[in-house]
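Structure request: Site-specific integrase, Cupriavidus oxalaticus.
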Amino acid sequence: MDSLWLINPTLAYRDWQAREAAGADRRPFSARSIVQHQAMFEHFRRHLMTKGATIVSFGAANIDAFWQTPDGRAYSQATRTRYVKLLDRLCRHLVFTGVRLDNPAAPLLYAERWPDREPAPLFLTEAEDARLQAYLQSLPEDLAGLRSRAIVAAFLAMGITAGEARAARMADLRPEADPPYLVVRAHGPRDARTVHIGRFAVPILRTWCARRATLPIDGDLLFTLTPDGRPITDMSFGRIVSTALAEVEFAGAEPSPRTLRNTFCRRLLLAGHSRDEVSQMLGLVSNRTCDRIAATLSSDAHARQRQRIGGA
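Returned structure:
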């Protein structure tokens, strides 16, 4: 038995990935995939800890409970399939090495399948985008209102993820620079990047930074659950975005930070930026997301985009 799995499962998983783990075609995973798999493993392991379970003892009920967490409920079919494949691969290894007696993920392979096609990306129309930008121009005097609008502005103007907004530090946002920008620190498989702030969001973010600097909050997170300095949860981000979108009469099915990120992507594509440029701004290593959103552009928008790219 490999006792390291009992003592330090994080280190055991990292060591196994580096030495032996491979995909279905027996080819070793890329370095980026290994980082992503380690992050997924840690996320699941932390879930088990909250349930009093371990890598050795977890069962099908623990996996079912994982899908019911706030993050799990938001997973796409493709993400759930990736987790099932990871857990099946892990459990098969643990059974082989004598650490486990069973593989509770195996039956799930029959239920989880790669989607036949990607779901249509959700975004604000150009008119809705314009209304939300106008809404963000008013600066509330109350702290909660100001913070909420700054958060919405960050998603809409920079296309960052909820995780990136949660981890952003005061020093990372430079609204006084020329041009204003945010430094998104490296995390998981994503490299560090610099994102310029959309002009419409500069006043609200500049005002928030000045207000945030005066608050007696522990730590230096840009957005916190005041006054204890804890990061804002995904659920709170969702409520903040949903409230703002209701103000501009957004009728879409998913009023979330991801919808604002897609809107940022689509706005840049409409403005003539290339897929490579936009993918880099989003911190993505492929153009898959940009391709899906580009497919929603009208033929006239495609023509304008090709004309701009050709004249660049």
